Amino acid sequence: MSSLKRKNFLVDEQALKKAKRILRAKTESDAVRQAISLVAFRKAAMRGYDRAAGRFPDIRVE
Question: By residue range, what is the domain housing residue 46?
Fold first, then answer.
């Protein structure tokens, strides 16, 4: 795992509980980390699908 950085932000409590349950996370922090990782994974996967379909050239935009 990469380095962790402390953050302070507001989160919808019901959404966090739902994410924690769905992701089977032991802690709220773990649920947030997993959710963020899933967003990054989804972006990479969609970029791969788009390249395979010839929709976009292989350009990295971070």
Answer: 13-52
